[in-house]
## 1
Amino acid sequence: MPNTRPNPLLSDRDIAFHLFEELDAESLTRLPAFSAHSREGFELFLDSCRRFAREQLFPLYRPMDAEPPVLRDGRVRVHPRMGDLWRGMTELGLINAMRPEAVGGQGLPVTVFTLATAYLMAGNLSAYGYVGLTAGAAHLIETFGDAALKDALMRPMYEGRWTGTMALTEPQAGSSLADVRTTATPAADGTYRIRGSKIFISGGDQDFAENTVHLTLARIDGAPAGTKGISLFAVPARRLGPDGQLVPNDVHVAGVIHKIGWRGLPSLALNYGEEGDCHGWLVGAAGRGLPQMFQMMNEARLMVGMNACASASAAYHEALAYAQERTQGRPLTSRDPSSAPVPLVAHADVRRMLLRQKAIVEGSLSLLGYTALQGDLSHHADSEDARARASLLLDLLTPVAKTFPSEKGFEANALSVQVHGGYGYTSEYMPEAWLRDQKLNTIHEGTSGIQSLDLLGRKAVAGGGEALRLYGEEVARTVERARAAGVEGALCDALAAATDGLLSLTMEVAGRGLAGDVDGMLRHSSHYLDLFSTHAIAWRWLEQAAVAEEALRRGAGATDAAFYEGKRRAAAYWLRTELPRCAPLAQLIRSNEDSYAAMPVEAF
Amino acid sequence: MPNTRPNPLLSDRDIAFHLFEELDAESLTRLPAFSAHSREGFELFLDSCRRFAREQLFPLYRPMDAEPPVLRDGRVRVHPRMGDLWRGMTELGLINAMRPEAVGGQGLPVTVFTLATAYLMAGNLSAYGYVGLTAGAAHLIETFGDAALKDALMRPMYEGRWTGTMALTEPQAGSSLADVRTTATPAADGTYRIRGSKIFISGGDQDFAENTVHLTLARIDGAPAGTKGISLFAVPARRLGPDGQLVPNDVHVAGVIHKIGWRGLPSLALNYGEEGDCHGWLVGAAGRGLPQMFQMMNEARLMVGMNACASASAAYHEALAYAQERTQGRPLTSRDPSSAPVPLVAHADVRRMLLRQKAIVEGSLSLLGYTALQGDLSHHADSEDARARASLLLDLLTPVAKTFPSEKGFEANALSVQVHGGYGYTSEYMPEAWLRDQKLNTIHEGTSGIQSLDLLGRKAVAGGGEALRLYGEEVARTVERARAAGVEGALCDALAAATDGLLSLTMEVAGRGLAGDVDGMLRHSSHYLDLFSTHAIAWRWLEQAAVAEEALRRGAGATDAAFYEGKRRAAAYWLRTELPRCAPLAQLIRSNEDSYAAMPVEAF
């Protein structure tokens, strides 16, 4: 049977570092929106999340992986203990923790929420998935719905009585939302009759809460083709009947998809309106479905980034513990076979694998935390200018913060398997499960390829390159801080040079688009995202190194000194091992090498 | 239920290219050892392998993955159809196809066998695994056993009546064979009594053949500690009893390990001698167990390389077919939503993923084919000098040919999932299964980390760098051939420069070892293997480009012209996208950056 042993999931010391030393979340309490909060309050929330993750969510991770939801009599039956987890998470106030008191929330900063919920994700991605989806769905109605809709559909979700989903993808269209075919026919009562099929609907049904609201993209009869004809509808699985009871709303589970990971969260095919009686409520303006849905999609993209980071973190801590307790072999310079074997962690190459995992995990945490902070500032900073600036940075970094943890987290999780050797390849140990989970993160909420088009085609060139200019300023600020703190000059110089390279490359590539060569501009978008991510993580590591250096100069006890030394070394690792990849990548993109772009299909 | 559709597994045109155009396998028939063979004979063998793979092995791949072997009443029960596959493969003469007629074989060149059996592996890794292991075990007895042992134990394996395994790993020792504890006590009858436990024994039991011979590492009582005290024993699961019947030999299946891939081939924990009556036969000389076993390990390492390459090939062909039939989205420059969607393969980034898979698969095939050719020449070339030269190259390239396809094959298989989008993540489609299979290949028969120590610590510096010098000569020959054929000069220059860089780096790093700093020499062994592999694959791609260019100059029909164009483009892709990674990697290794090597455990 699966061997689940205690796992910290994330390092508490590290989360405190990101939140209070690197990002200074306490300073948010000086903004009016967060003036009711305090560092102590943030720490209480953190503590309740981490305890719930370790004591409740993680022990049920393996059982939920082993017994995925099944379809019986048209309804999905989830793991019998999932209901307890749901109630526990709603009691923590997670669904509307970031929303204002007016809708029952706690008004927590995104920054704090993001780093706190990382524990929940690391403990049990699937179980937390219901919360994340429900929060996003309710938030859409909060933002775009009218008062009646909020009362009828948002409130039960925020109260944890109902769950929510996002229903975008259709079987024939996949990622191409312009091809959504689900229809919405106006009815006399002011609602719409929905007809169509959706697929890959995560959490699309469950049996622990009384209803599920599907935030659904559909076309009102007569709407134009393409994305401009798409509207957003709230479509509950059960609607309020004439007698005030919930009655079926003609939404049917057509099938459960057999996923290789995230197995506790069902992914469903749904049919709407088989009986012509599926009622949908328009959310916001007709034809504005896609831009509105992007509120949820952007939230979901950052959530996927943290899902990936959290999974990589749990796998890293598992490998770190295993490498210290499992003895095997001897140092290269001491081959005396009668000497005692050493722990795995004594071998340089095992330490390399562990440091790489650490660099990916904590680099991702830093980037995700920073991006979340821009989310808070974009709404609540004390000047219009500061809000606009944060908003641009948030948009720019969203595809990076989604994709880097997903792509490199998969590599990190594979390294966790590798550290476990043959055991890592068996379901008697944990790493293989996290590896399976991780692969989904490069696909859902926009594949890595789509994120790369978003980054290079939209975000990096937004406002004539204004977002990228701001990014350059932020990086320059970090370089100056690092120099002042006494971080090794060569590392500071390397990041500064790479930043110049990134900015000039972007201008050159954007110039192709301006000259009308859109294909040429976007041909190497994946390589551009790789370059940008590598740079962004180097930036976050230099920032972390600067913070660590400052702390060491102020003086630190032995435990803290070791922690900061780890930050220094992981920063050096990333800047010396990964940052040098940027120059050849830039050269490749600049060359516009066309081996694949112009490859005839018959030549494959 | 799993959807298995026809899949070519490998491209027949491509296999013919490697075998007859790139490696000129026909010229082997001019050597005395292969004089009875002809190109037509090779093609017949190829054809029977590919037909068996497509018609018999592949259709049973999913069923065997879905119903892995179980332990019942102390015996392993494999998939009920596995026996048919075993008989089919023995009828093809696979177990001793490369062995001489004297032991019932066909005396086929390793080169031909390697590329032909790639189909079998691509069709069903697990089913072929029994053949590969049995062949390796029988070959050990053929090489090191006496006449009686050959008659008693080798012959039934070569005849396909029994199977064989390699039994090295023990639970407490893992990769550290110096710590093997299994004991062998001399008995009055000249055999030994074996006692101990082994783990991860692939194919360690089955119910389709009448016996299994475990080639087992153990220590004779009183033997010295470490590897020098290890001897090799043949330990059958059942031995010949006094009445000429097979009787149990006190080898017990202690457990079946639950693997995430290769699920058709059981991986077992075995206990020897629980009743004090496990008979083992010494193979070869006492104390020579490890060097002798290396014959089988080296064969197995190349087999794992081809396992990985074959799995990546099947996944690549699946993605290529899917990308042509699945329509989604529109070209970047034609966003008219009323236009028809285009096939996935029309998107540049999908073509990037496919070309990367092709470059990994066909680059690996080329390297594995070349390495196999050195295997043939090391035994059968017509001069002592040529044999010695081939032997050095074979040794040098074995860790590379094992590790590159395993590490990059995993990435390629992940790309196959990615091309399939959300569907790729489900067990309704094939790619996830190949992804699971692939992860084992970086672990078994020596992890990637161990291969990197073997490459840098032994092979690259063997004979004072003689093997590496020969490698440099071979690469230089390719560069000259490519220049003469008219391959773009920049590509030739790039490989030549990278070769100089590799050779000078190796000398510098080896110098550290000579100066007594073994840790410093081997600190970046994984990066060195990465660099070496990237270079070796660039070399094989330039060779392929040269062959393609020559063929195009001679004139080719439309189908062949497209095929050669694919070779050109894949070569350009690898040399322009991957080869530039070598310079920063060399700089990193040269710098001897010590972030992880000197990382204190408490700083993680």
## 2
Amino acid sequence: WHHSKSSLLYRGGKVLVVPLEGSHWVNMDILVKALHSKGHSVSVLRASKSWYIKEESSYYNSITVSVTEGFDEEFVIKALSKLFSFLRSETSLLKFINFQFEMFSTMSSAHARVCEMITNMIEDKGLMKKLNESQFDLVLADPAWGAGAILAHYLQIPLVFNVRWTTNGEGHFDIAPSPLSYIPLTGSGFSDKMTFTERVKNILHYSLLKLQNNVFIKPQYQAICDKYFQTKLDFTELQQAADIWLMRVDFVFEFPRPTMPNVVYMGGFQCKPSNPLPQDLEVFVQSAGDHGIIIMSLGTFVGQLPKDVAADLTDEIAAAFAEMPQKVIWRHTGDKPATLGNNTLLVNWLPQNDLLGHPKVKAFVAHGGTNGVQEALYHGVPVVGLPLFFDQYDNLFRLQERGGAKIIPPHILDKTVFLQALQEVLHDPSYRMNMQRLSRLHKDQPMKPLDQALFWIEFVMRHKGAAHLRTESYKMPWYSYHSLDVIGFLAIMAFTAVFFTVFIVRCICCRMCLKRKMKRE
Amino acid sequence: WHHSKSSLLYRGGKVLVVPLEGSHWVNMDILVKALHSKGHSVSVLRASKSWYIKEESSYYNSITVSVTEGFDEEFVIKALSKLFSFLRSETSLLKFINFQFEMFSTMSSAHARVCEMITNMIEDKGLMKKLNESQFDLVLADPAWGAGAILAHYLQIPLVFNVRWTTNGEGHFDIAPSPLSYIPLTGSGFSDKMTFTERVKNILHYSLLKLQNNVFIKPQYQAICDKYFQTKLDFTELQQAADIWLMRVDFVFEFPRPTMPNVVYMGGFQCKPSNPLPQDLEVFVQSAGDHGIIIMSLGTFVGQLPKDVAADLTDEIAAAFAEMPQKVIWRHTGDKPATLGNNTLLVNWLPQNDLLGHPKVKAFVAHGGTNGVQEALYHGVPVVGLPLFFDQYDNLFRLQERGGAKIIPPHILDKTVFLQALQEVLHDPSYRMNMQRLSRLHKDQPMKPLDQALFWIEFVMRHKGAAHLRTESYKMPWYSYHSLDVIGFLAIMAFTAVFFTVFIVRCICCRMCLKRKMKRE
């Protein structure tokens, strides 16, 4: 509108990106590309042993910090394999707690690697001088690790988060009121309508997470704050001070919950209309006729289920596919399963977005990574979910709750169960109708999610922050924030008032009794 | 974007508007005109004794409900005059409480008039049949009174609010978590950073308001719900169930606070660029030279300060203006003040928006009505505030807190004070700079506020509601919402565990003591 002029005028901003490795980089990369194409200059901070973030790029400058250990493929795959074998076994409370602690010790060592990188960076006077002189307009960071908040504070420049998780858990919990009575914790598997027992579990889960964070993760970052900042600063407050939180969800996907003025929802920002398929794939798809196509992919990282713990599963899945009248395109990088049917095409890579947008595709077998789930939602394709790790169950659960997906937990997966789920999703029309409805809702926004994100990044550059959108309530002590001091004070006042009233009434009564006594005498 | 097609397709929606009288109608009217010009058909519900809402209109059909008493000018002016004489006197706590109760009894009788209208409407079988058959797509209502929520539920159609106040107070308090530790109550005069004493007062103020609402207002609407709805329904829940809340604020104006996914901010939706002034006014403005112009208006309702209680004030103001080197345009409908200077032009009406957008205008003397405050903010003109009633002090206070306005409380207003305030606002450049900064922030939005409002109204028509954006947490009992039942349960569990541990340890100890004793013996 009439301000578009000033918006357009803001070109040539300088953005310092502090990303996280792996799949997190995949989505940060989309913002980096978009910022570059809008005329901004982007510098990306990376570790010397980076796995996904390349040193050379046509659309960003990289700044490399040397580290002794990085997040390489080996580190991640070892952790994933451990997780998967846990998931396939029957769970008990003890096993679950043990597993949680094991996961947190893995997380803890991951954060230790990050902290080494931050320390190396700050100690490198030459690098810090260069960063200071670069006069960046803002830091764009993924708060699932703490480097962004620390660096932005060190350089005294505005901070924008590309966020779903912070070092403390789901991002909203850091910034918005989150009543645990109807906001399920990630990993709890609950919806926004919980029974009493579920609410008890949800609060216990929260306490456990809080404890683990305060023991394993926060102290590492706090130590850096204490060492390098002159004034005493709480690391959590540093994160809460971010100007804008670009959340990678929207409320078609996420359960409705309280939010804050500086939270911008860009869920599905990575989605786009599909392009035509390559010739050979199109021929295969058309050969399916009216039965249509099923596609299966377990995400970028998991080309195949871990061989040592899940080779049998691969055979069960292949055998189930073989019995379907549909044709199947399966991203599978391992050995060809013995039970593979003629209708199933194994591929090393598939154009997921283009397939999901194809009218012949009837169902999507997915692990529940954010990217796949959002693309399925965008194109309105129903999902059979095989959740493996992290937030995958929760992602799929949100689709299932709205009638667009069917989840198969890893420990009950076999041919019969898989076949049944596939047939249900294909033949019960409600799955497709629900996904199509979600797709319509998601697409019916005043502005594309990616444009929304870019607008607010540029807004922060134009106005050097967004302080007017941010409460500073997080600086209050917790008992003041919850008004416990005021309630205590009022309770004492009320108690005192009652006490004195009773005291005075008793005095008067006594005196009257005394008088009556004296009269009688 | 790619969905604009479906957006454009939605034309010819049928909207039933349930407005409130007076200044509330002034802003609802803007939405009505805009909906009409987008091709929707709008019906407006009005009382037979309506003051502001005309029966005949070129852009809406009116539906008239007969009432014995309406909100006429007399009712409002009598109430205002009472308020003003209170405001000019010195306050004490007792006086304040007495005044609050008097105000609430006035409010109560206003709501009684509304309830009479709702009852007459529901009892009019012909009218209800007609409304039912009209098949409206949504009800657009002002929730400062309860007719909209009741009617929407009765007709079973989606509900959108054009809101700043509900029957319970400030709109956010009904729908979003509102920690009283940093969210000041309207009328408290506090900011979002409160001292301990202020926080105590804020909570007391809240309790008083809650009490007064539950005694004077809610029961009237609840009686209607109990009489006309078969299932037991809580009136407050009816209001909380609205699909979209179009809030008449934004966070350039309002203090940052928690919000909800179904709250849309359209603060300043009534503002627009200025048009050239009429010839004679332009000549007068230009004659001011470099000193520029001051404009003064006390809003649509208050053409002059109440004669019986404030005739002296009018003279003081005129005398102060007479001493300024600026020229003054003053909307004043009363007698010409004796002290009027040559530099002051009295007018019955002024093109406020066009004047505020004029570069010669240096300051705006305003009563703090939402409309004037928003227009001043939009055009970046500093304000000298003379708050009279209702939310006017709070509106001005938000500008003052950000350095764009100076408030003169009614009880200290005289020539000297007024002159001093005028000179400060004119000569301290920070006032203008701050207002200009607010103006830039306000205008830097991805979408015009009015377009945003229209988008979400049409969204609700397209999707027959917006249930996915609305939590249903308000249906929980308050102790469950705040997890008090879970905390109680866990406390009992912990207590029992400690008790049994102590018990068992004591038993073991006793037995050991006994054994030792026996051994010794």
